[in-house]
Amino acid sequence: MGNIRCPTGGKIALETIRTDSDVKGEIKNGTPVIDVNIKLEANIGEVQCNIDLMKQETIQELEKITETRDQQLVEMALKKAQKEFKSDIFGFGEVLHRSHPKQWRKIKAQWQEKFRNAKVNIHVDAKIRRTGTITDSFQKGNISD
User: Fold this and answer.
1) How many domains does the chain have?
2) Where is the signal peptide (predicted)?
């Protein structure tokens, strides 16, 4: 579950229902290059803004906002692992070891340094599957008894 900013101000709560990731790596000119592809599916749980969820364009815009937010979160975690912790907590070295064993043997001894300078490409693909019964924000109109 996470929140994204609504294009019109306010927040939208998303419930992540499925995630999948694919990590591939190669070594180019002695430098590790890692490609991380993340796919996620989410449902809209709560809307705190004035937005029309019946429009496909609105859903697509929310998907783009989600993709950008999640990519930034992953990039921040990666930067922290590379620069602050100096530790391959994501297992990228193992990916290289399995996919390119000969090249891995050449850089294994320097992996800690190589990891800090590795190029990591992150791509996030988000799909919003259901808006549930939520089509309008509770803030849209006045409720009176």
Assistant:
1) 1
2) none
| 97: CATH | 3.30.300.210
Beta bridge partners of 126: 40
Enclosing domain of residue 80: 20-39+56-130
Written as one string, the DSSP assignment of 82-106 is: IIII---TT-HHHHHHHH-HHHHHH
Amino acid occupying residue 70: D
pLDDT per position in the chain (145 positions), as tens? Answer: 799 999 999 999 999 999 999 999 999 999 999 999 999 999 999 999 999 999 999 999 999 999 999 999 999 999 999 999 999 999 999 999 999 999 999 999 999 999 999 999 999 999 999 886 655 555 555 434 4
User: Residue for token digits 């999640």?
Assistant: 70
**What phi-psi label fits residue 57: left (phi over 0), alpha (psi between -120 and 50 degrees) or beta?**
alpha
Reported pTM: 0.87
